[in-house]
What we know:
The protein is mainly α.
Amino acid sequence: MVTGLELAVLAVALVLLLGAARILQAVRPLIVNAVIGLLVFLAASWFGIGVEINWLTLAVVAIGGLPGAILVVLLSVFGVAFTPEFIAPLV
């Protein structure tokens, strides 16, 4: 026999599942852009261009996509922003 409490729990679980699916559907393009940006940063590192990867660079790339990643790499090349910190070796 199904009780009212079980039906309420099932309804709440269904609402939460639909809400999570909607959130994932909205966030998916940002995740795809961030992964593409990280691949661009990896390719840049193969060519000897260092880019500091932090929350700001990931936000720029997630919102801007491939053009955002290229912008971050260019700013790093020209030393304007997103350059990795140089740590001098201890002598």
